[in-house]
Amino acid sequence: MPAQKQPFTIELALLGFVRAKPAHPYEIHQRLCESRALGLVWQLKQAHLYALLSRLEAAGYLERTTEAQVNRPPRKMLHLTAQGQAVFTRWLDEPVAHGRDFRLEFLAKLFFAHQEDRQTVAELIERQREASRERLQSLARQSASLPSDQPFERLVVQFRQGQLEATLAWLDQCAQESGKAVKR
Amino acid sequence: MPAQKQPFTIELALLGFVRAKPAHPYEIHQRLCESRALGLVWQLKQAHLYALLSRLEAAGYLERTTEAQVNRPPRKMLHLTAQGQAVFTRWLDEPVAHGRDFRLEFLAKLFFAHQEDRQTVAELIERQREASRERLQSLARQSASLPSDQPFERLVVQFRQGQLEATLAWLDQCAQESGKAVKR
DNA sequence: TACAAATACTCATTAGATAAGTATAATCTG
DNA sequence: CAGATTATACTTATCTAATGAGTATTTGTA
């Protein structure tokens, strides 16, 4: 039989849209497209969204019920299952591993963490700082042990160091701001 | 007939492997896999490489001739066509548009620019600095005009600013080093 | 004689992404 | 009341990217 695959990553973010209360796909798409929200970092087409939601459902993280309304076409509401809940929480707590994952995935985590409470935000940031500090040290070691006749490798490592330092500085700022900003 | 598509981007980098002298696919793959070279930023599987080379050939940027050798299996040498030459040079001179393109595409440009001469490197860096400075200003304007009730958008913009500033600092450093480092 | 190395591929599959279209009921507008 | 628009839910076809796995050929080497 075919090995089952499910290295879910960013699509787990979608679970955040049904966390507080069930939602239907069309609505999720609307919310995603609001340009000052997640849509800033994730432009997802409707067709793609449907595909991702199906995978999440197949994995048992979502369930759908059809709600026939009186005055409107019936909605296929999506609920988070217990398993989905667990997976989402774990996803939200985990720092990302690579610099390249910040632009989309970490920002998505942050977005949904803000919809929970302050502590969730604080913890996410702190864990990510920790992970990034370690990564930075590893880069520093690598950089120190570089033979000087490898100019390209040197440039690459320096680039990565720079990006990561900037990320850390930004994380510090996030931590400060989330400390004072009161969410709703 | 189907609209022809060819938004070539990073695959144009492959032309750099046949720039100085023709090469055969197997050799290109070897060179790509050298871990201190382009392989640092671009891990390309053999099957994928063949696919990309075919597209470049179909576009008229590469031509192949079979060189039957005396003692070895025949090599399918790939040459750069005049058109390929032109396209490659243009690619090499163009700065990248987005921050996310640095990790792979800009580093690849830099890699091949180093195989040309010092001036190519200097020009590439200077153009990229210029483009990035403009982008940074645009971000700054955006940031200044942000209503303060958009915390998420603010974070996103600040993140991008930070990354871009780090990139610019790194570019400055590259410029300095390429000034003194003599390439072979 | 068998195997390894150099060389060049192919195929099947999955995933990611997008454009475009279909369908249906309700509600709004002239 | 007709016709347009909106809300809602999908499907299909297509393309690209990526990967794993395998095949084929020629020669040199053990």
Helical content band of chain A: 55-70%
**Rounded average pLDDT of chain A:** 89
Largest sheet of chain A: 2 strands, antiparallel
Distance between the termini of chain A: 50 Å
Strand fraction of chain A: 5-15%
The parts of chain A where pLDDT drops under 50 for at least 5 residues are none
Arrangement of strands in the largest sheet of chain A = 1-2
DSSP strand count of chain A: 2
* Biggest interface found: A-B, 32 and 32 residues
Number of helices of chain A: 6
Describe this protein's structure.
2 copies of one chain form a homodimer. The first copy, chain A, contains 6 helices and 2 strands, in the order ααββαααα. Chain A has 184 residues and is mainly α. In chain A, strands 1-2 form a two-stranded antiparallel sheet. In chain A, α5 runs antiparallel to α6 (151-180). In chain A, a hairpin with a 7-residue loop joins β1 (62-67) and β2. Chain A has helices at 25-33, 46-58, 82-93, 102-113, 118-144, 151-180, and strands at residues 62-67, 75-80. Chain A is elongated and about 70 Å long. Chain A starts with 24 loop residues before the first helix and ends with a helix. Helix content of chain A is 56%, strand content 7%. The A-B interface holds A 36-37, 40-41, 99-100, 102-103, 107, 110-111, 114, 150-153, 155-156, 158-159, 162-163, 165-167, 169-170, 173-174, 177, 181, 183 and B 36-37, 40-41, 99-100, 102-103, 107, 110-111, 114, 150-153, 155-156, 158-159, 162-163, 165-167, 169-170, 173-174, 177, 181, 183.
